[in-house]
Write a structure and sequence with these properties.
Length: about 210
């Protein structure tokens, strides 16, 4: 369970969002919707603890036990267009490095993940030589195949062509379980198939105070 209690975020003198209260329950799929600039990506980063909120609080409960914000990182995986990956490494080296911090889902090896993201012929190549679509597949692979109860996906189909989008939807279905919470920030319906709950940032942006849930 992730609980947002009246949270607000601003950059300098501009409020990105204000006074949001919401609860994300275990084992559900959420879509945080909004146009560019609506604050959905910032909200995702605040929930993950990447950005601090200016007002309010966020609490985390894993398996019925409270988790301090500074200890939340091992419990989630994250994928966003602007996130860095170590491009000097080969694909195989990078995934081995990543899964040394957050183990892969049970039953999956690095070789399996590379096969699932359809990059097996590029396993020994440096990521710096990959196209933008191939790099996005790597980001999706490290996030979706990490053995974490929570997955954050920020506009996951960025840089993907039709084949890549179909692959993303397949990987999402493959790695979704009844125990896993998935939170997707998006403005594209193809990115959040079968979402259980919708949080619309466009609605929130027109109000100084609005509680949703």
């Amino acid at each position: 369970m992730i609980t947002l209690d009246n949270i607000s975020k601003r950059f300098e003198n501009s409020w990105i969002f204000k006074n949001i209260s919401y609860s994300f329950a275990d084992g559900s799929r959420y879509a945080v919707l909004g146009n560019n600039g609506s604050g959905k990506s910032t909200l995702l980063r605040c929930i993950a603890g990447i950005h601090a909120v200016n007002k309010g609080s966020i609490t985390y409960t894993i398996n019925g036990q409270p988790v301090a914000p500074e200890n939340f990182y091992p419990h989630y995986s994250f994928c966003a267009p602007g996130m860095d990956i170590i491009e000097e490494m080969t694909l195989e080296e990078f995934l081995k490095f990543h899964f040394s911090f957050k183990p892969a889902l049970p039953g999956y090896t690095v070789t399996d993940v590379i096969r699932e993201i359809e990059l097996k012929h590029f396993a020994g190549q440096q990521i710096r030589n990959f196209s933008s679509g191939m790099k996005q597949r790597v980001k999706l692979g490290q996030a979706l195949f990490s053995h974490t109860p929570i997955v954050f996906l920020d506009e996951p189909c960025t840089n993907l062509d039709k084949k890549g989008i179909d692959l993303y939807q397949h990987l999402l279905a493959l790695t979704t379980t009844a125990e896993r919470t998935i939170i997707i920030a998006s403005n594209d319906p193809r990115e959040y198939p079968a979402a259980d709950h919708i949080l619309d940032m466009n609605t929130l942006s027109h109000s100084d105070k609005l509680t949703v849930g």
